[in-house]
Amino acid sequence: MAQAPTDRYSKIAIALHWTIALLILSLVVFGFLMTQDWMPQRFKIYQWHKSFGIVVLLLSGFRLVWRLTHKPPPLPGDMKGWEVWAAKVTHIGFYALMIGVPLLGWAMVSASTLPIENKLFYLIPLPDLPGISASEAAEDRLKGLHEIGAKLILLLFVLHVGGALKHHFVAKDGTLGRMIPRLRPKERQ
After folding, report:
1. Is the pTM here over 0.70, yes or no?
2. pLDDT over 70 at 76, yes or no
3. Would you tell me which CATH number, out of the four given (1.10.287, 1.20.950, 1.10.3470, 1.10.418), belongs to the domain 5-178?
4. Nearest to 142 by CA among 114, 118, 112
């Protein structure tokens, strides 16, 4: 049976989901491009990467508060136990990484020994995180953790999209329609 429209996420949850998803995909592209020696304007790409990362951090914090104060629609009742577990672990992992990876990036630039003033979108000064001393060793460790976090986000992204497509095309349970505006849940055969 298809889910009723009341089983969809709220407009705010949907907007946050897609905005953060697009920003994260942009950050992955920026992250790749800014590390390529052949790439012109690398400094500008670094600055955009930092700015988008802070936006993801702020939106993710708001999204977490929203999620904790607004009950999401129920999962389909016919999901297997391991599917419910995988969905919950994936969502918890996403929240941890959407907040943790930008914080690691911010900590990394806070530990940098380069005398670069960080400004969000070239306008708003970004102070260093308190308690982080400039150190090449700390910057390198934080950079490694930041990169691992980015790779974990990509892994979760693949799992998340794969699960959503499985629900839409195989289970045909209307799950994808809960997060995609104007996608009508399909009737079960």
Report:
1. yes
2. yes
3. 1.20.950
4. 112
